[in-house]
Amino acid sequence: IMLYELLSVIKQLYQILIVLDGWQMWLVIMIVLTREKKMPDKRGVYLMKVVFLIITIVLICYLLFRVFGGNNKEKCDVMVVEDKSFLSGFEVKDNEVHIYCEISLKNNSNETKKVKLMGDFQQELENGLLKESNLEAYFIEKASNSVEVEGKSNINYMKVEFVGEYAGYSRMSNRMLPDIDVIEIME
Fold first, then answer.
1. Half-sphere exposure of 93 (CA within 13 A, CB side)
2. Which one of 9, 45, 103, 133 has the largest count of C-beta atoms within 10 Å of its C-beta?
3. What integer pLDDT is reported at residue 173 of this predicted model?
């Protein structure tokens, strides 16, 4: 029964932890740990120490996850405006797949940023259209693999092309915009 009580307390705390932040968590933990009115016996004290240790470890992991965001990608001030971007088509030429998109970018910083785009075409790799999944964008109107976006501005509907090696199957799995990473070029 002690294990069942321990699991019940941990489950309650987990449900509370995902809603609360910082000092509020410690307050809830102290309330849960001191909710019994009678003095616990030796097993109860041991159980409380174990629960407190587990809660502390979970709290540290939770805070580390919040600080580091669970994402290894560097944050960039320039982002793809997805509701103003779309995949417009593709064609196979000379054993290469040319995938065309119109991309809108937004720069949230005050500085001009030079960026390049990388598209993730994992589905097309799995379906046999491409031999590689990560493709770099070529900005057709700029005749370049990178573009500069002025501070606090948008660039709407830029024509870009992703080129990859043809794998033999000439259909796309869908016409959805691929996941696109915006990579800032430091000069």
1. 6
2. 103
3. 82
If you average pLDDT over residues 110-135, what whole number do you get?
A: 93
Tell me the C-alpha distance between 185 and 147, whole Å.
Answer: 10
d(CA 81, CA 104): 5
Q: Characterize 138-156 residue by residue with b for buried, 16 or more Cβ atoms within 10 angstroms of its Cβ, and e for exposed.
A: bbeeeeeebbebeeeeebe
**What residues have CB less than 8 Å from 134, skipping those under 6 apart?**
118, 119, 120, 121
Residue reference for tokens 């606090």: 152
Q: C-alpha angle with apex 70: 179 to 12, nearest 5 degrees?
A: 125
pLDDT at 72: 44
pTM: 0.61
Residue 12 pLDDT > 60 = yes
Question: Which amino acid, one-letter code, is at 156?
Answer: N
Q: What is the mean pLDDT of residues 52-73?
A: 69
DSSP 84: G
> What is the crossing angle of helices 2-17 and 42-68, to 10°?
30
For residue 5, give the H/E element and its range: helix 2-17
Closest by Cα among 93, 92, 134 to 116 = 134
Query: What element of type H or E holds 56?
Result: helix 42-68
| Highest mean pLDDT (candidates 20-34, 58-72, 135-149, 173-187) | 135-149
